[in-house]
Amino acid sequence: MSLEKTLVILKPSAVQRGLIGEITTRFERKGLRLAGMKMMQLTDDLLNEHYAHLADKPFFGRIKQSMMASPVIACCYEGVDAVQVVRSMTGATNGRKATPGTIRGDYSVSAQENIVHTSDSPENAIVELNRFFRPEEIFDYSLPVQSYLNYEGEE
Ligand code: ADP
């Protein structure tokens, strides 16, 4: 068990389809703490860095265009094992293959227009949060319901 922060980006497909409220409600209901949130217009330079692992793919140009098609909402969520928790709520990359009940499984029929980006490991979450947020944009406030979210000492 470790308290982690993770990056979620509500992609242009979420913003354009009016799903910002639906998606953020899921994370709120799950019990994750919203530690940062902002609207931003992504740039080619930022996306070259963020998707560097896909630079040799034939669809690289298309993904970047799709991520710049409108502003996005960048969010930082915190919780115990938050990276894995958010990743499992996200579902498989291709919305057609993602399990129903996951965000992509419920809202996407596409590999590219798949609603959210979510960090895939604790190491990447740290790098990605530094890429998208300045330190003063991450807020460490406490939730009064904290003792109802986690049982101290649980495995
Ligand atoms: P994930 O977002 O599930 O971590 P990747 O890091 O592999 O997946 O890919 C990053 C993004 O690139 C995906 O979310 C999706 O928008 C896009 N992408 C990945 N694979 C494809 C594909 N085969 N065709 C179109 N877009 C893709």
Automatic annotation (TrEMBL):
PANTHER family for the chain: NUCLEOSIDE DIPHOSPHATE KINASE
Pfam families, alphabetized: NDK
Catalysed transformations (reactions): a 2'-deoxyribonucleoside 5'-diphosphate + ATP = a 2'-deoxyribonucleoside 5'-triphosphate + ADP; a ribonucleoside 5'-diphosphate + ATP = a ribonucleoside 5'-triphosphate + ADP
Job description of the protein: Major role in the synthesis of nucleoside triphosphates other than ATP. The ATP gamma phosphate is transferred to the NDP beta phosphate via a ping-pong mechanism, using a phosphorylated active-site intermediate.
Keyword Flavoprotein on entry: no
Active-site residues from the entry: H117
Major site of localization recorded for this protein: cytoplasm
Keywords, comma-separated and alphabetical: ATP-binding, Cytoplasm, Kinase, Magnesium, Metal-binding, Nucleotide metabolism, Nucleotide-binding, Phosphoprotein, Transferase
Enzyme class: transferase
Name of the protein: Nucleoside diphosphate kinase
GO function term, MF aspect, one: nucleoside diphosphate kinase activity
Subcellular compartments: Cytoplasm
Organism the protein comes from: Bacteroides gallinaceum
UniProt record similarity statement: Belongs to the NDK family.
The EC number(s) this enzyme carries: 2.7.4.6
Chain ranges of the Nucleoside diphosphate kinase-like domain: 3-140
Cofactor: Mg(2+)
PROSITE patterns: NDPK_LIKE (PS51374)
Subunit record text: Homotetramer.
Source species taxonomy: Bacteria, Pseudomonadati, Bacteroidota, Bacteroidia, Bacteroidales
